[in-house]
Amino acid sequence: MPNLISHFQALVVKLPNFLEDILKKMYTEYTRCSKMMSSKSRDNIILMRNCLVELFKINPSVTYVTGFLYIRQLAVTLRSVILSKKEVESVYNWQYVNCLHLWVSVLSDCDACLQPLIFPLIQVMLGVVKLHSSPCFFPLHLHTMRLLLHLAAATNKHIPLIHPLLGILDFCATLHKAPATKPIDLTCVLRNIIGFPDQVTKGYKKTKAYQDGVFDLTYEMLLNYVSQLSQTISFPEVSFPVTVWLKKFNKKCNNGKYTGQIRIVLEKVAEVSRDITERRAGVTFTPKDLDKVTAWEEELPESALTKYFNNWLRIHRTVQAKQQAENMMAEEEDDGEGMDNDEDGDENGAKDSEDSDQEVEKEEDDEEIEPKKKKKLKSKKEIAKPDPDDTAASSVDKKSKKKKKKKMKESVASSTDSKDVIDPGDTVEDIVLSD
User: 296 with 283: CB under 8 angstroms?
Assistant: First the structure.
């Protein structure tokens, strides 16, 4: 990977005018290949995104022009959806989210010339979160908020996300009785609408599995958000509305698992608030002295919330990786069984085809025999049927033939043998006509 980037940098030095065209072409190819996200294609998309991020770091001035163009394109798409209030799928899809993820990765570690692009990108992502408030789209909201939290931590900016996070938690509190179903991993899921490959069934939002998946992801975002705020001097004031709302959540939620985890967050928030209040009691600077405030915040040790979040995240990721491995093994076993069934079906199909071939051969032989039989029958009928000319001649000589027959009968009656005798001079035509 570093060797590839170095070779590309050397190529750009030789051909500086082609960098913008190359980046545009690679960005277009990235958007084309990131339309769908699954557990199998996720690693490939991440590799493409990381390579493209490294290429965007080569020339920040060219990156600014390209980034301004494509971030504006994302904003125009969002604006058209907001005005039409239809076609939400043009924004709520993996292609759009992967484009946002790319620019978040580019602007998280960028030069000063790219700083003006951060605010438009934040506004676009907040618009995506506020576009549709249905519980079906909670996975997409949480994925977008994860990008916002990553950008806020990298650029040291405050992004107000507490309201959408608490709104999603409210959904988990109101769903008291939900049927138990198989757990679902929302890592590669954007929405909960039937008819899309990156979704679960339509009624899944009322199940316990969907509720648990949404709560775990929201709880992770909430811990990440408050842990970032815990390293600021204003945490006691900022955390007050969060504390009030979480206490209300515990009162109306009947799920012991959820209330226990929220109770731990409340304890950690109260502990950090007391610590920061004690530490800032002896400061001499005012809030307008930003340099001194920044220096004081950098001297803060790691808070209890940050420690708890790191430990919880490590355990949660371990359990999640284990579940994903089990799911992949189950899928591989199902695929293996399907292949075996296909092979058995092919063998049976081969046998059936052989039998069918034999039957076809028999039918063909029967078809060959039947014309011969028909020919024989026709020949017999031709022999049995009199010729029209012969019938005409026999009708003329009818009287003479009757006389001959009478003579023949008389000769037969007079003979000593009792057997029927046919005169060799008589023809077959005469015998047929006599009948």
Answer: yes
The rounded distance, in Å, linking the Cα atoms of 188 and 376 is: 76
Number of DSSP helices (H) and strands (E) in the chain, helices first: 16, 0
- Residues belonging to the chain: 435
**Cβ atoms of residues 360 and 352 within 8 Å:** no
Name the 3-class secondary structure at 415.
coil
Neighbours of 2 (CB within 10 A): 7
Identify the three-state secondary structure at position 255.
Answer: coil
Strand ranges (E), 19-161: none
Residues in CB range of 155: below 8 A, 6 or more apart: 107, 108, 118
Structure token digits, residue 168: 């999603």
**How far apart, in whole angstroms, are the C-alpha atoms of residue 90 and residue 71?**
15
Asked if residues 251 and 170 have their Cβ atoms less than 8 Å apart, the reply is no
CB-based contacts of 61: which residues, under 8 Å, 6+ apart?
113
CB-CB contact of 269 with 243 (8 Å) = yes
DSSP symbol at 123: H
* CB-based contacts of 280, cutoff 8 Å, min separation 6: 233, 296
Backbone phi, psi, residue 58, to 5°: -65, -50
- Token duo for residue 318: 């371990």
Rounded to a whole number of angstroms, the CA Rg of the chain reads 45
Per-residue model confidence as pLDDT tens for the chain (435 residues):
566 667 766 766 666 677 888 889 999 999 999 888 877 788 899 999 998 998 898 888 899 999 999 999 999 999 999 988 777 888 888 999 999 999 999 999 888 889 999 999 999 999 999 988 888 888 889 999 999 999 999 998 889 898 999 888 888 877 655 555 555 656 656 554 333 334 445 555 667 778 888 888 899 999 999 999 999 999 999 999 999 999 999 998 888 889 999 999 999 999 999 999 999 888 888 888 889 998 998 888 999 999 999 999 899 888 878 877 777 777 677 666 655 555 555 555 555 555 545 554 555 555 554 544 444 444 444 444 444 444 444 554 555 655 555 555 555 444 444 433 333 333 333 333 333
Residue 387 DSSP one-character state: P
**The pTM is what?**
0.71
What is the C-alpha end-to-end distance of the chain, expressed in Å?
Answer: 107
Tokens 């998309």, residue located = 45
Q: Which of 150, 309, 138 is nearest to 220 (CA)?
A: 309
218 alpha-carbon distance from chain centroid? 23
Cα 196 to Cα 45: distance, rounded to the nearest angstrom = 19
